[in-house]
Fold these 2 entries.
Entry 1:
Amino acid sequence: MSDLHELDLVRWIATRAPEVGDDCAVLACEPWGDLLVTTDSVIDGVHLHWSEHGPDAFGYKAVARNLSDIAAMGGEPLWAVIAAVLPRGATRAEAEALYKGAERAGCRLVGGDTSFGPTAMVNATVLGRAPERGTVLRSGARPGDAILVTGSFGRSLPTGHHATFTPRLTEAAALLATGGLGAMIDVSDGLSTDLWHILEASGHGARLEAAAIPRRDNATLEEALNDGEDYELLATVLSPTGRTDGDVSWPAGFTRIGTITDGPGAVVVDGHGNERALVRGGFEHRA
Amino acid sequence: MSDLHELDLVRWIATRAPEVGDDCAVLACEPWGDLLVTTDSVIDGVHLHWSEHGPDAFGYKAVARNLSDIAAMGGEPLWAVIAAVLPRGATRAEAEALYKGAERAGCRLVGGDTSFGPTAMVNATVLGRAPERGTVLRSGARPGDAILVTGSFGRSLPTGHHATFTPRLTEAAALLATGGLGAMIDVSDGLSTDLWHILEASGHGARLEAAAIPRRDNATLEEALNDGEDYELLATVLSPTGRTDGDVSWPAGFTRIGTITDGPGAVVVDGHGNERALVRGGFEHRA
């Protein structure tokens, strides 16, 4: 096994460039605003299969993954550039299908670089603008915040969801508009791991209700918490019970799955009131 | 052979997005300015060899190719993001060498995505700002303009120049500051092909002096004109003889190799006054 972990590398880059953000780099272009930049690759045999999913899915997923990152920062996507590596012998129709798939994800395509290589691969970089009140950060969670999610979790790979998901831009904008948003992240590494990203950044804990977590395709609780590639939003917002100036509700499309606690630590509570500690990628069993 | 040609694809994308520029996309972020965006990949076995050149060269070349594009538009590079695909089993030291190579190219690294795959590959996207007077375009050549180049041409692959070149940002800025710049492009496809990009965009012709073309490593004239991967600048500027308001000279680092003509057509003239027609990637022989 390699000694190399992506999270470590991202932190290493971040120590060298303060612009590195949670899901996107945040680049000051005042007075225009803060430019968001995010980049992701889709590789044959790793994220999709060229012979099974086809070039359209490669273009679509490469852009959609980035749009999910922009949504998590509360941003507005503006432009996408694509660098495609096509298998040798690829046809013009396949190349066009790839670029049309990229466009279909819903961001204006303004540039493309096309090469041929031994492995099909599409890299997309998406540029967007941060919300005027500032980007939404993982560190913004507050004790008492409701923990909300879009969609459902688990079994993304066997159901094909990972190749066809719709980035949650509309939902993110609606939640941002409520004014109660604390932290937000897109769930790509798995619900438990991405919740921990918020907890570590904010210094707080969480209490999840097992029965409240929406599961895709009859996923088990473990699959819902840990499978990953869900590309849903995980957000914390001011809770109705945590405010004195009246109720706050959340827009359509969100489900409450728990509450931010003073912490530290995260637990999942079942219908019988039994608690289990939640760690990255799984459970620790305890009384 | 595939029916797919990169130039065709770039044109196809350009018909769908007017922001697609010559070497970069040009994105209006007023009042901040025009944002330049360019993306390029370096693939193992295509542009470099991982086992021979090493991860540092992959990072360096991926960013440097983009900086050469930014230079050709007269722009100022600001930020780079990297998407690296490492061969399985790559070490942390190799990943860091790759990112340090990217930094060494001279642009601020603000984001990175790291994956593992069957083929090593680095994609870099560089963001910059266009000059206040507007980007330098290929279409700006005028009859009578002197044709200038930086550096020398040919045999870039056997000499290793293609992996170690210095992007011509300083030279581009100095030429821009003269106020006489017409068209500019970076020479990656070969001097003859990239000159034709200027001639087609401007609707004019060219007369090159064979003896004036600087050659790398005793390259033949054919190699200098057609090898490619030189990453030098090819520019047209107001000529001293083409102006009535006094002489214009050009900054250090540029060599004059010919003159823009009314056209159409391009010729190369040897020391005996013999002309040969210059086409993309080679000569057509004529009297």
Note: The two ends of chain A are 34 Å apart (CA to CA).
Entry 2:
Amino acid sequence: MVNVAILGFGTVGSGVAEVLAKNAEHIDQKVETPVRLKYILDVRDFPGSPFEDKVVHDFSVIENDPTVEIVVETIGGATVALDYTRRALSAGKSVVSSNKELVAEHGYELLQLAAQKGVSYLFEASVGGGIPILRPLSQCLAANELTEVCGILNGTTNYILTRMIRSGLTFEAALKEAQANGYAEKDPTADVEGRDACRKICILAAIAFGRHIYPQQVPTEGISGVTLADVAYAESCNRKIKLLGRAVKEPDGRVCAYVAPHLVDAEAPLAGVEDVFNAIMVKGDAIGDVMFYGRGAGKLPTASAVVADVMDAARHIQSRKHIEWGPGGEDVTVSPDQFPFRWYVRAAGSAAAVRTAFPGAALLSRPGAPAEEVAFLTAGAMTRAQLDAALGDLRPLSVFRVLA
Amino acid sequence: MVNVAILGFGTVGSGVAEVLAKNAEHIDQKVETPVRLKYILDVRDFPGSPFEDKVVHDFSVIENDPTVEIVVETIGGATVALDYTRRALSAGKSVVSSNKELVAEHGYELLQLAAQKGVSYLFEASVGGGIPILRPLSQCLAANELTEVCGILNGTTNYILTRMIRSGLTFEAALKEAQANGYAEKDPTADVEGRDACRKICILAAIAFGRHIYPQQVPTEGISGVTLADVAYAESCNRKIKLLGRAVKEPDGRVCAYVAPHLVDAEAPLAGVEDVFNAIMVKGDAIGDVMFYGRGAGKLPTASAVVADVMDAARHIQSRKHIEWGPGGEDVTVSPDQFPFRWYVRAAGSAAAVRTAFPGAALLSRPGAPAEEVAFLTAGAMTRAQLDAALGDLRPLSVFRVLA
């Protein structure tokens, strides 16, 4: 028998309780011992809920109960969740989390603590919702030297971009619709400005490349600067605008990680990922490109990833599961400003100015463009500084990378 | 130190040797002990090869060497490979295989033997080449009651269909091109007639649903009956023809598994899988749809999956890895003939006859169709027997299912 406590009975936490209850027979059979929910920690009571009798308000009840071997942290944020996670691990309990902010900020420290205590710290649900990605990255692709991880990591922004591309909604209208459908929060900043995608690429990069990468080391640009004009220009050259989190291992071993909108070839697998779906592309020296696709968020997909981790921890109570990476540091990352990219530029200026400043650039057109607007793709790759220097009198309105 | 022997130094076997050598440092670090190739069993010698000194011709050398703990079986087929796999497992060695025929025919027996001996039998590379799919199925999706596995499981046929769809090549011309490019074998029967896909859906279904399913229980139809006329009709209703292996868990617990060409909505993720790429879609009650995509074949992708299994076996020498399923039997499967599907039909006959026989059917058209040819999608779902009975004077030329 393995007892479980859930911290935080919100969307994901209540989904975990549901999946544990609904699939109990199947889960017990796979784990080869009963897995039972013993406590739910929340500030609220849940009168009338089938889980009412499990609710406690004091974390120390869980912390001091030696029969609780697995703690599920679905609180979110990096304050209370950090405190409880440290205390649970210190008390010799394995912790399963869906909290990308906590893992991106404190993953190294918490994994070290778990290793010291001989317990597991697992967080498959923190990236890609229910898509199995962290375990395949660390296990199934283990025989590869990985060179790049790149993906559509945030369902909210992908939904907004899909609505702009397919239905011609403005960014503001698409955001409102996403909020009305429950795909975007009232305060959509963390999604829209790319911070959520940034945390996820930090976690992916740490697993792929073996060192902790902090969100503040990852230049992050969201989608609030993407206009319908940009969408139309992208379509004119058979591309779609997608918000990508990317982490590339450079030949010197450093990691170039960033989050930004990109123009993606419409035939590429990532371009076909629409609405709230996520997809993560992994490149390895032996395997080539592999893509993982599915619902990146939502109560039950995320809960099923949490429960899979709970089952894994339960099967390995005696021999903790092995995820780890090295410490972070300034030597781990390198700025994308150091590297050349191919660029899409929309600017105020003339086609003649573009031809002079960017020989060989592909000029783009769209119906109804103002006379003073030009857009183009650079002929080759250049650094952002080289691009800015070449612009001259052209006043940039939108500047996005083109995914090679 | 863990010693490895490779049986069969063909494409995959030599790829395994290369990946083990090239990524040795990385592999040893992840496994936390050196992983060394000690023997290569082949009937040939390889003078001048860097692996020349490891070649042996007698399996008993490997069988009787107690320092060999992991045997890689990349022989293929179910005769010699079966004998050596039984003997290796019986001798207490873990076996890693890329041999889908052997697993599909004898997986249950070999997994039982491995369990008795306390060793691992792993075969991630047998399905989807380098795509991590078997481990995610058995582990990451463990918290789900799985309801369906469906995929493009054979790169050769997907390449041929892609060339027919995109470039208008006939089946025969596309097959010749595939052979010239090394994507199809001289005798392409196993690929073209769907037998390769059949073996793979057997393995996927066994892991997803827990009982062995034998290839002879899976009705299998290949792509040699797909014509350019069918491709054109599919395009006229915004669909693409794809060869799918499907296994659906019916409410009574039995598995309906089959391999056949399907019309797939052009916007669906599976439709975007082109050339030699494979993709496997998994449906679970909590997770919804998840898709795994990548190169389904090829020396290095497949070798990297084998090496990942070798690493996993090496890490678990003391505690064997847990894959298992129950025995097969006639009670495990149910024929797709029992179930209704929506159908695409191309027939010799008249539109009037279609309207009479299939009220509400969607008639399709294509440029240059002969006067006596009709094609349509049935309005609703019906069993194959119901379809055949309704056809009356219409003489069917192509009959494919429409993926809902």
Note: The radius of gyration of chain A is 23 Å.
